[in-house]
Design brief:
Mean pLDDT: 98
CATH topology: Rossmann fold
Distance between the termini: 37 Å
Strand order of the largest sheet: 3-2-1-4-5-6-7
Structural class: alpha/beta
Low-confidence stretches: none
Number of helices: 8
Bound molecules: nicotinamide-adenine-dinucleotide
Order of helices and strands: EHEHEHEHEHEHHHE
CATH class: Alpha Beta
Number of strands: 7
Length: 248
Amino acid sequence: MRLNQKVAIITGAAQGMGAEHARRFVAEGAKTVFTDINAEAGAALEAELGEASLFVRHDVGSEADWAAVVAAAEAKFGPVSVLVNNAGIIGPVAKAADLSAADFETVCRVNQTSVFLGTKHVLPSMVRAGGGSIVNISSISGIVAIYGTPNVAYAASKFAVRGITKQVAIEYGEHGIRANSVHPGYIRTPMMTEALDADQIKVASGSVPIKRVGEVEDVSNLVVFLASDESGFITGSEYIIDGGLTAL
Ligand SMILES: NC(=O)c1ccc[n+]([C@@H]2O[C@H](COP(=O)([O-])OP(=O)(O)OC[C@H]3O[C@@H](n4cnc5c(N)ncnc54)[C@H](O)[C@@H]3O)[C@@H](O)[C@H]2O)c1
């Protein structure tokens, strides 16, 4: 039980990577609050995960929602010691001159402002918990630009997540609070299968040095490690998990 005694919040966890993180966190002993805008899928996962879990409907871009999520977590399980900022959207794929300001702001609100708001609202709870770990899910789009898939909003927001992570890490290290970012490459989730058809996934797999796309379990292994005390001396770091794609 690598997450025994932890109280965790995981966002965007009704499906995809976040849902797998929630399953693994419960299996590793964490009391797990998981959130999403998709209330139906969230309720179904809560029924699967049982008493050690709590689903809260939550728009990560809403500050009022964040206050309610932290209050619900504290009321049911106590002070929060792990935050996984996972919720994210791709938004329209369009070259910069063709992207509306409104679409840019929507993507930044869900991918970037959410990470600030979650961090802001969870930090006092983490200080009460005596320390904690913040795991921010960025992307390889927060490390390099992606040729052939124009999306400045996604790139801006995912680079910003990396910056927020490093700044928070140095501001709160003295409170025993760590913050690290995770940068997945191609991972098989609904986000991927909505964006790519089977042939495109085959091409994507061929472009990865390890010759496959990632699975949600690959990312959960890393997130559990970063959430656990095993990573106690790691903070302000970025973890690329892409089968070698950005090493090319
Ligand atoms: N799948 C990939 O290949 C890949 C690669 C790099 C990074 N990522 C990042 O990993 C994270 C998880 O991606 P995924 O592939 O599991 O995506 P997904 O689309 O399968 O799941 C994302 C979840 O976030 C929820 N969500 C969306 N907007 C929300 C909001 N405003 N408030 C709360 N929840 C919201 C969705 O309802 C959904 O359940 C995202 O941040 C994504 O950008 C994914």
